[in-house]
Amino acid sequence: MSDDQEAKKDELLALTSIYDEEEFHGVESGNEGEIHLCLELPPNFKLLVKGQTSTEYNISFLPPLVLSFELPADYPSVSSPIFTISCKWLTRVQLSSLWSLNGFPEITALCRRLDELWEENQGNVVLFTWIQFLKEETLEFLGIQSPLEIQSNCSQHQCESGQKEAVGISGEKSKPQDLDPRAVQEVDPHTDILTQLLDFDEAQKQKVFDGKVFCCGICYSEKLGSDSLLFKECQHVYCKACIKEYFQIQIRDGKVQYLNCPEPKCMSMATPTQVKLLVGEDEFARYDRLLLQSSLDLMADVVYCPRMSCCMAVMVEPDSTMGICPSCRYAFCTLCKRSYHGLSNCIATTDELRSLRDEYINASEEVKKFLEKRFGKRVIQKAVEESYSTEWLKSNTKQCPCCGSNIEKVHGCNKMTCSSCQKYFCWICLGALSKVNPYSHFNNPSSPCYNQLFQGVAMEDEEGFGSDED
Q: What is the greatest pairwise CA distance in the chain?
């Protein structure tokens, strides 16, 4: 085996041992490969997306630089590796060279820098040197600092394909024909570059999280991040088993608005994606339905069809009391939820009339006018009068146990005669008394009202009792 072949074999073997399969891909021939290099970003690094409006995002990871190479037969003794560099977030200008207005190179970029490193190490293997440079020095070499500015897809596409010049990071312009053909920009003009960058950042954060060990804030056992859930706003971590049970209880009880972090006083909410990841299909369907319903409940122009078999959400026009269900076509009054009755007042039920007086008396003038408009002023006044009458009867009368008539006791003993059905009854226990000897109820030691014939009776009533024949 020649010295070049031995050197190439040893170099590729070393790269395979250093980098995992996601980072380094070799081919069976042993002369080609591809390495993906994720650059380490400083803390609080920001991404600034420029377009019609500018938006800033905090990111921790960017899609990798991809170095594809082919090793010639006379590498490393004579020839340099044949390579291309591709990236989603660097322009071709940054990957190749920037040119000044007089046509001479002004700033050497990545492709040219790799050539320089080969010239400095010619005769020796150079792939690891290239990789170390790209991984550790790219940001500093290109002068990239936070925020990293990228253009929207339309701007990039127009700049490179619609115009005949490209703008680099320094603001200088270079002609497309002068750009290094080994520089490849992996940006499809029909895709959203921002989405790709943010999705990659999120995936890498999840990958790092999955490999760490965390202590669950509920069961206090240590679990891998892959078996845990992170509340993103507060960064509190709990194992999936505990959070799953917590979510299931809340959903079962209909408290879908309270799927927040279990930490006391913490208001970070779980995302629907996190809920779907842990609970079953039926539970998530209930969660999704209740969450939608709670959102609709907060909307002033949304009511529900009163038919129990339907319950569809219905949009209501402003200042209108008529709702028409889009599902069953039922026309109903949005106030009383009965069939639509036009301009006629709502008919109050017995239960509504009982509570109407207190609501009306304690209401503001605006609410009073609304109630009068809804039920009619006469109905309101009648409800108030009847309520007062009901309260007086409740406080001053008792019902005959035989016919139910309201009886007021003005004077006399506790043996009462109903003015309606003429039956005898006890005022104390409301028990019916014997027609033959009604006073035996008060003379019998086993009776609950024994010796209480004059219980609660004033003295003047007692004096007149002997002449009262009832």
A: 143
* Domain segments of the chain as ranges: 3-191, 211-297, 350-396, 409-470
Q: With contact defined as beta carbons under 8 Å apart, do 316 and 309 qualify? A: no
Among the listed residues 260, 233, 234, 232, the one whose alpha carbon sits nearest the alpha carbon of residue 246? 260
354, 387 in Cβ contact below 8 A? Answer: yes
Question: Which CATH number applies to 211-297: 3.60.10.10, 3.30.40.10, 3.40.47.10, 3.10.290.10?
Answer: 3.30.40.10
Q: What is the pLDDT of residue 441?
A: 92
> How far is the CA of 367 from the CAs of 297, 344, 371, in angstroms?
21, 19, 6
pLDDT tens column, 248-289:
998 888 888 778 899 988 888 888 889 999 998 888 888 888
Catalytic residue (one of 111, 333, 400, 413): 413
d(CA 223, CA 238): 9
The span from the CA of 313 to the CA of 180, in Å, is 61
Distance of CA 286 to the CA centre of its chain: 14
At residue 130, the 3 state secondary structure works out as: helix
Going by their DSSP bridges, the two strands 166-167 and 173-174 should be labelled as antiparallel
Question: What is the pTM (predicted TM-score) of this model?
Answer: 0.52
| 305 is a catalytic site residue | no
For domain 3-191, the CATH superfamily is Ubiquitin Conjugating Enzyme (3.10.110.10)
Report how far residue 182's alpha carbon sits from residue 455's, in angstroms, rounded to the nearest whole number: 112
211-297 matches 3-191 in CATH topology? no
Distance CA 161, CA 155 (A): 10
**Per-residue 3-state assignment (H helix, E strand, C coil) for 1-60:** CCHHHHHHHHHHHHHHHHCCCCCEEECCCCCEEEEEECCCCCCCCEEEEECCCCEEEECC
